[in-house]
Design a protein that fits this description.
Elements: E1 2-6, H1 15-31, H2 44-53, H3 57-62, E2 65-68, E3 77-80, H4 96-99, H5 107-128, H6 130-151, H7 163-176, E4 181-188, E5 191-198, H8 199-219, H9 230-247
Length: about 260
């Protein structure tokens, strides 16, 4: 399933949602210098930014400094204790939970996250107002990272991406507009169709996937998640469920149900 748009109109232009999308795109192309398909693993600049500004659980828990052991080409990451100060140009690891929210591992990673944010974020922002939405989005991202770190506090793999914060937006949306309908592309081998599906099903199915894949990661000692931070998604989504009623100020009436198939 590939969501395209929902049927909930907004009363106000989603200034914050658009600003976050623009910021993520600018960060990926001009600050990370990411490629058109994947982040270029041969780019010294790309890898340095990944280590410096991605959120590394081991750094956050132990206060260590993590970096490349010998050469970037070999891509080994080593973490040294706090008695070994980081290079002066390196940021504090405690700002990386914020910088990592705007970094991505590839164009597909970026595009998928921004599509979900545009479809569902504009309505959540409309229900909160810009200022509340900024706080909600940031807290969702922090909650997402907190669960990921709690699950594997010794990991030296940089965590990055807006998906944890966006998962919080999805959790809020599913409670605000459970009867909304989402125009979704359904792919079956070489064929596809467009159909409106209840948001409760689309987002509920997405969350169930994260839980199942996360459980598989825990049961597979060699790791099988393909680099996806499933527990960050779970943490963000649960935060959205728990906090949406505190932040939302008004909820738009859901349009009457329709079942168009294209």
């Amino acid at each position: 399933m590939f969501p395209l748009k929902d049927n909930i109109p907004t009363d106000r232009f989603p200034v914050v949602t658009v600003a976050i999308i623009v910021a993520n795109v600018l960060v990926y192309f001009f600050w990370q210098r990411g490629g058109l398909v994947l982040g270029d693993p041969s780019s010294t600049h790309y890898l340095e930014q990944l280590i410096k500004f991605g959120a590394i659980p081991h750094e956050l828990v132990h206060g260590d400094h993590c970096g490349f052991k010998d050469s970037i080409a070999d891509n080994p990451i080593v973490c040294r204790g706090p008695r070994y100060p980081p290079p002066s140009q390196d940021p504090s690891p405690y700002i990386t939970p914020f910088t990592a929210m705007f970094m991505h591992g590839g164009l597909l990673h970026l595009g998928g996250n921004m599509l979900f944010l545009w479809i569902f974020g504009n309505n959540v922002e409309d229900a909160m107002g810009p200022a509340r939405f900024v706080v909600f989005y940031a807290l969702a991202g922090l909650a997402a990272l907190a669960l990921q770190v709690a699950i594997d506090p010794n990991s030296t793999v940089p965590t990055l991406g807006a998906s944890g914060a966006i998962a919080g937006v999805l959790g809020g949306y599913i409670l605000l507009y459970p009867r909304a309908r989402v125009l979704t592309a359904i792919f079956i081998i070489f064929f596809f169709t467009l159909i409106e599906i209840p948001a409760l099903f689309v987002l509920g199915f997405w969350f169930l996937q994260q839980v199942l894949f996360g459980a598989y990661d825990l049961s597979n000692p060699t790791g099988g998640g393909g680099g996806v931070a499933y527990f960050a998604h779970i943490g963000g989504f649960v935060f959205g469920l728990a906090a949406i009623k505190v932040f939302a100020q008004r909820i738009k009436q859901t349009p009457s149900a329709r079942f168009p198939v294209y």
